[in-house]
Every structure is written in structure tokens, then in C-alpha cells.
Amino acid sequence: MNNKLKQFAWSYLSRVTNMIVAVSLVLSFAVASSSVQAAEKLQTAKPESVGVSTLRLGRIDEYFQRFIGNNQIAGAVTLVARHGKVIHHSAVGWKYREESIPMTTDTIFALASMTKPIVSTALMMLFEEGRFRLGDPISDWIPEYADHQVLLSDGPRQSRVPEARPITIRHVLTHTSGLTLNPENKGLTEEELKWVTNDGKNFQSATLAERVARAATIPAAFHPGDHWQYGASTDFVAVLVEKISGQSIDQFLRERIFEPLGMHDTFYNIPLEKVDRVAARYIPNDGGEAELQRAPAFQEPTTYFPGVSGLNSTSSDYIRFAQMIANGGELNGVRLLGRMTVDLMISNHTGENEVYIRGPGYGFGLGFGVLVDPTVSLDTLSPGSYGWGGAFGTLYYADPVEDLVGLMFIQLRGHGPLNIRQRFTNVVSQSVIDSVADQGQKIRGYGIPR
Questions:
Q1: Helices (H), 230-382
Q2: pLDDT tens-digit map of 87-119
Q3: Percentage of the residues of the chain whose pLDDT score is greater than 90
Q4: Whether residue 166 sits in one domain with residue 115
Q5: 256, 125 Cβ separation under 8 angstroms
Q6: How many C-beta atoms lie closer than 10 Å to residue 19's C-beta?
Q7: Is there a single domain that holds both residue 274 and residue 387?
Q8: Domain-located, residue 436
Q9: Which of 72, 119, 184, 312 is least enclosed by beta carbons within 10 angstroms?
Q10: What element of type H or E holds 171?
């Protein structure tokens, strides 16, 4: 073959190869785009078409208007979905009362602890890849906890002893680890205190993984599995996601959960161009009225991404996550989890341990509070209902018997005395007017062995 013929052959082959690559990229982009577009579609319906009263749903806005009228909250966004369709989405009051900026349904809220179910879901996605078993010790990935200790108290005397059993992945998912990042009253020496607090400096310029590694010096509150204690456990879940996946939790959530589900307004670091949609944060004064605690403002980006809190989101974004779980791990053709994994996550793993944060009648699953006994609960929900709330007054719950999902978003630190979240579930439940006695549940937790 002469040189001209060789050049022609190579040129032709190169053009064909480039065409194949281009077509492949276009097809890949089309598939990815169609998946995201499918997930972005929020189906809506008239309430009566799914067995809910429009008139009774109107009580939700009336309920929150009373708190606004009494100056106990500035504003609220609520969303209700049934059978996978949004039947109520409303904004009342003020996003930023002091500047007379009204609340809107696309307002961005600090989720606080409503971050936990999302981060726990991320770890369970890795569980489905066969990366670990729930009974595996966390020290397999965070070796500083291989010989961890427990602080025991006998009156005024304190002593540290080896943990009776290793801290497992199940322990951190269920808040039965006894772990904390707070060194107060843990009997640490001055040298140990300097180490775990980064010599008194905060960790915001560092990473969560660095803080968790140093916190191994802090003894646990009890032997793993002995009790339920709300605290730092989901920070360990986030670090496990990072260690196992090789990505930051911020990157993992964005690529594996937010982008596939079309959650474009959910972030640790809120972009500058979206700050005008952020809700102001309030706190009750001595008279119980809401006073401004933090005005909406741009926050410098951080590399410290907690598992226990830190995410910001909208009601339209969070319902995508919530409905994905309610559907057994799938939303409009985008599947993140298998149905059996979701069943495991929304089952009670904590036995008779009291989940005091959520109130009487609740146990805890793998990232979710789970209603075990409705007869003592403050909520009007079916057995097996699950979800979680945030410190600033956000709440997410799902009732799998009624195939009902409810979201409420306010920004009030210290909302507890109002009992606003428990009463919200009741105001939503009263709007259901049909019977599902002959309908099967889509998903359900496992029954408690007797």
C-alpha cells in the first residue's frame, strides 16, 4: 500500500471513528436527559380524584395562618401528595418578614436534621452494591475506632472501659452507637481536649472526616446497641459514604441522588444567584413571638459537609426524594434503591428503646423514625408511617397505608412549645375521606417479631 492510499485509509477510519463517538455521546446524553426529565415531572391531581377533600385541605393554610397572625412564625410552605400525585402545594406568610418579602413555594429552607434521611439513603445505595454488611464494624473504614472506649459513671466517679462489642454500620444508621463529637463532660485530659477540638479552632476549614477521626478519643456514652441516643451518628454515616465511595458526601449526593431525581435546588453551599430565594430564620422571644435570628445572606462555601444537618432545599425538591422512598426506591423511571432495601430502612431496628425526639410510639429504622404504636403517638398516622424533621421546624413524613406524603417547611429555632409539627400531621390526615381497605400497600416495613 502506497503512502497516499495509507493516508486516505487512516483519514477515512478517523472520520468514521469520530462519527461513532459523536453518535454515542448524543445517545448517552439523550438517555441521561430523558431520565432527569422524567424525574423532574411532578404529577398533580385534583384532591377528590385520590380520595381527599379539597375543602378539608383548605384547613392546612388556615392552620398556619393562625400561627402567622399570632406572630409565632413568619411563614410556611406545605405540600401533600397522595398516590404519587401532588394535591396541595401552598405558601403563606413571609419569607423575610422584616423586608415584606412574601413566602413562595420555591423558597429555599435550611433542612437541618432532614438531611439525615438523604445521607442514610446514600449509604444504603452502597449497601446495595455489596460494599458492606450492616453488621460490619465502622473501624473497617475509620480505623481510629478499632479500640474505642465507653465512659461509665458510678456516682461522681467515671471510668473508661473497652466497648463490649464493635460499633457497626447498623449502630450509626440507627443512632444506637453512643458516639459524639462533643467532648464536654467526657473526662478528657487537657491534651485530649486540644486534640479533639483542633486546639480550640473550629473545623469549618477542614473536613468532617478529619473531625470524626479526632473524635475517636472521646468515649461513647454507652456500649453500642444498648440505647438510642440522638446525636452525631449520621456524621459517621456521611464519612462512611466518603470512605467507601471515594467521593465527598457533597459530590456523591449531587451525582447519585440530586441530579438523577431532578433536585436542582438542594445544596450544602447555596449558590449566590439563589440567595434571594432563601427564607429568613427566626427564634421565639420571651413572649413567644418570632424574632429575626438570621437574615438571608450569601455564605462562603465550605468543605465541611455534615451528615446530621447542613443541606438546604425546597418543597418541590424534597417531595422528589420523599416520593422516591414512598414508591419503593423509584421515581418516574429513575431507580435509586430496590424495594426490599426500602422496606428494611423503614422498619424499626431499635426494639423497645424510646425515640424521644419524635415522641411516644416511635422506633427508628435506617435513617428514619418509624411509628410503631399509633395508640400512644401524638400523630394521627398509620402503623409503619415514617419520616423525620429538622431543628428549624421542617417535617417530612409518609404514611404507607394511606399512600400519603406530607411536608411542612418553616424556619423557627425553638418551635417545640408550639407543637406545630404534630398538629400538622393531624390537619393533613383529616382531609382523607376514602377507604383503602381493599388496596395493597406499595411498600411496608417488616412487622416486629413477637
A1: 233-245, 249-253, 259-261, 315-326, 339-345
A2: 999 999 999 999 999 999 999 999 999 999 999
A3: 82
A4: no
A5: yes
A6: 10
A7: yes
A8: no
A9: 184
A10: helix 169-174
Residue type, 38: A
21 within domain boundaries: no
Residues 272 and 398 reside in one and the same domain: yes
Number of domains observed in the structure of the chain: 2
Using the 3D structure, point to which of 225, 245, 265 is the last residue of a domain: 245
> What's the DSSP call for residue 444?
-
Tell me how many degrees the CA angle 188-193-196 measures, rounded to the nearest 5: 115
Is the same domain home to 325 and 414? Answer: yes
Instruction: Give the pairing of strands 75-82 and 85-96.
Output: antiparallel
- Helix, strand, coil in percent for the chain, rounding step 5: 40, 20, 45
Residue 264: is it exposed, middle or buried by C-beta count within 10 angstroms (0-12/13-18/19+)?
middle
Domain boundary, last residue among 224, 245, 266: 245
Cα separation, 308 vs 53, in Å, equals 36
For residue 95, what are the contacts with CB-CB under 8 A and spacing of at least 6?
A: 74, 75, 101, 102, 103, 104, 107, 277, 278, 279, 280, 296
pLDDT, tens digit, 9 for 90 and up, residues 368-421: 999 999 999 999 999 999 999 999 999 999 999 999 999 999 999 999 999 999
The verdict on 278 and 398 lying in the same domain is: yes
Average pLDDT on 416-428 reads: 94
Side chain identity at 324, as an amino acid letter?
M
**In the beta sheet, which residues pair with residue 163?**
none
What's 439's DSSP letter? S
287 and 385 co-located in one domain: yes
As a whole number of angstroms, the distance between CA 154 and CA 148 comes to 20
Query: What 3-state DSSP class applies to 101?
Result: strand
Same domain, 273 and 224: no
User: Do 169 and 134 meet the contact criterion of CB atoms below 8 Å apart?
Assistant: yes
Query: Which of 448, 427, 440 lies closest to 372 in space, CA to CA?
Result: 448
Q: Measure the CA–CA gap between 72 and 61, rounded to whole angstroms.
A: 15
What CATH number did the domain enclosing 390 receive? 3.40.710.10
Global model pTM greater than 0.85: yes
* Domain assignment of residue 27, yes or no: no
Cell numbers of 159, please? 471510668
The residue type of 290 is: A
- Domain that residue 308 falls in: 47-129+256-429
What residues contact 300, with CB distance under 8 A and at least 6 apart? Answer: none
